[in-house]
């Protein structure tokens, strides 16, 4: 009888919230259990249920379902591959496939590459409702588990809020005895959503462990540093233009007239800055610092230029337990290294079906990276921007970046280390892939279908001529098959937290000394001069960094460069309301079927992206609005 009542409650709750049928939501307890009493009968069973609360979180590791990864314009993907297929739903949103009748990446209902986050929230509430049942659960464990679940509730709400804006707050599970209007939940004002998320994080943080002691068993579970860092990100998001005084959304109201977006509030930036500083203090107290590569014994005579590149690459691809700046990552290993790696050997070119190599980086993203002077390529007085598409041959001075005597485009020369750490390109050096001798390194050859990395068929081509090198560990080998050195994709790194703090401080008081300090920490690890020296010496706008707006532009570009391909820039560009500008230009690459440099290096439009004002927030599925008449649609859908 209890199980029957429980199922009825869940069905009504789900139908009223999302309009989906009941059947697929019934499996809310661990496998092979029939009742909640069994699920919480002792400590071991309750711990199994705790891990089901984490389950949806781990699904975020599949970045092809992450809105920030697939719709940021950092990576594009060819259409309709018959071999090496991945679900293209997310990537195709840039081609204008999004609609409200059947939304792509539907994390509201759990469809089209999305998981049901409301289902995850329901699990969390069940856990909190039953945490007192296991009599053999110690008081210390109980406090920690409650804190973990509160964190998960906060993060799940945050994920929905970034996609949909105002959302229903699932503080407790709905009760079957409630009247029908109570069951028809409505969207809560944006400020209330963020305040609730922060309150959960504040409740969770004190009872979370400072560090994970048993990394073999518990790495990936939530710590205090993670909670405080997420709080910093939440409050910075709440202060940002998409959610703070957004005139485009001022008319969004519930059906009872309740406004869902409030006027601009400058104090939100101070709250964000304070939260960022608290998170940095906690992380540094636990020994976190910016990662630098320490060569293993079998790598000798490594030049400083390659050491810097490997520091930047391995800040993402180093093993978690060895990565000094990794705040948080997900347990599943990153499964797409083969999509980010070009064919570099004759065996890999023969075995083209063993690895796709199909993650392509647009030309515009490549041009976002600085010159070696540390300023934008269109601002650097020493960089020949007008003739950047001319041809130049690799020489001795550039041999650790570009193959000697290889003809490539001029704009591949004299770029910052993060350019070479992030991108694989025609003529570019690829240190690793089984070769760690600086006198015998691979380089990419991508011009025409006769080259190793060039297009062989419609299933194994890179449609722009650039690969996201940063997403491949230098020890992974693509030769006769693919031998992978696994890693966990970061959700938060210390470098990102430093830049988040600098951003918030600049919005509070302009470019103060602290703003410069935290930006320059990240730049120094990347081998760049300080903002003041770089702009003052090399920029055609030498005072840019002295104004709040100028420093804002610098910080935004720093975050896009430093966190490139990490599913961060997509969220940033949304909250800044800059994604529409980024995607307003056609997605371009090189003329990949041409084998001569002079013909290959001509910008070629791959497709024209479709992104309008309405795309900043996801549509709620039309059917949900029919079933729950208290829900209102997002603007312009």
Automatic annotation (TrEMBL):
**Which is one Gene Ontology cellular component term of this protein?**
cell outer membrane
Domain SusD-like N-terminal as annotated: residue spans: 106-230
* Residues covered by the RagB/SusD domain: 358-637
Main localisation, per the record?
membrane
What InterPro entries has UniProt attached to this entry?
SusD-like_N (IPR033985), SusD_RagB_dom (IPR012944), TPR-like_helical_dom_sf (IPR011990)
User: Which domain of life does the protein's organism represent?
Assistant: Bacteria
Q: Does the keyword Lipid biosynthesis apply?
A: no
Where it sits in the cell: the answer is: Cell outer membrane
Gene3D superfamilies for this protein: 1.25.40.390
Keyword terms of this UniProt record: Cell outer membrane, Membrane, Signal
- Family assignment from sequence similarity: Belongs to the SusD family.
* Name recorded for this polypeptide: RagB/SusD family nutrient uptake outer membrane protein
Query: What lineage is this protein's organism placed in?
Result: Bacteria, Pseudomonadati, Bacteroidota, Sphingobacteriia, Sphingobacteriales
